[in-house]
Amino acid sequence: MGHPTALIAEDEAVLRDELRAHLATLWPALHIVGEAGNGLEALHLFDRLAPDLVFLDIQMPGLTGLEVARQVGNRCHVVFVTAYDAHAVAAFEQGAVDYVLKPYAVERLAVAVQRLRQRVGSEPAPLDKLLHELSSIAPRRRHLRWINASQGADVTLITVDEVLYFQSDTKYTRVVTADSEALIRTSLKELQEELDPACFWPIHRSTIVNANAIAGVTRDYRGRILVKLKSRGERLTVSEAHEHLFRQM
Which superfamily does 146-246 belong to? Predict the structure, then answer.
């Protein structure tokens, strides 16, 4: 067997760099073949690179580490990266699955590395029981459910599920549904922090789209990806930084 390979999935770049640096010291033979900043990117890289190990941050935008683990767990060894409390640690200690706590403690990482070195050539431990336990204690994020928006002189209540996309427009943000448009003063950055990242994807610095509203994608004459919507005719431009969301389409 050649050098073992690993994928790091962590949405904070500073922590990603820190983990890579620690691993380089603790396990020089380990080859980091890819790094992902969200759950969807992690899945795409996993399918392409087929690493032996994956370091998965539990709280990531797009898909959580738990959701990624459900899809990759039987194909590689999983190490969960977590800022969880004692209850979660107890769940890990009962299983044969490793974890690393944030902020990174080199001592704990060294223990995980030692176990992984022994396990890397063997079958991955089953994750079902652990994932079930972790899902039950994972903190529930309270996502935005509805929006007060201006339509002419009226203020309208729009449920978030109706929204096809949000688009920044000078001092306002456009809220676009299948049959209407409205304006709010909340910035895209603020919205992104409150919306469910599994459903609302930033595809451009000026656009967040509801993934459930996407009919498909196409490319324009310049090769840029455009999102087609199920219930409106306009196409939404995807910036280069967000093209990874649609590579599998």
Answer: LytTr DNA-binding domain (2.40.50.1020)
